[in-house]
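Example 3.2
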Amino acid sequence: MFSHYTFISDDLLIIADSFNLDLSNPTNQVLTRYSDNINDSNSVINLIFLHSGSRELNNHSMHPEWHLTSDHTSLTITIPIVEESVNSTKYSIIKDSDEEVAFINDITLSIRNLNVSNLSDIASLDNIVNDFTNKINNAWEKSSKIIDITRHSKSWWNKNCNRDLANYRLSKNLEDWKTF
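Structure, written as tokens:
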């Protein structure tokens, strides 16, 4: 396929390999250059290097019909985009809420009630850790609630913010706005 060989191609492959890239194989073999001058070669090599070991990104296509006014063939690769589910809700406990106080109280009580008097082996330690983990999960499920995640969701927002905003919306008073 190539009429000559040069050491520069070896260097290029070594450099590509150092970036974890492999030379892509075209799905079709066509000319890659279309010269208007009959004395010029049409066998210019166009290359694509892709991520090594990728099943999805392992070859490219050449489209001579797309060259239009360019003297080179277009090279393309199809990158698959997998549909991904992004959660728009999460469990949360609002800072400084009654639920936060209840959660902390439940955890504190669980720590106080841990029976660590019989820690004679790894199995008994595992049992205590698993019991404590279950108590934390139960406290979380009891005290947390599902909230919607929006572009306006802020970690610092609390029940005081809700109250102050509601006051401002009712009064439209500048002082209530400043308080909010």
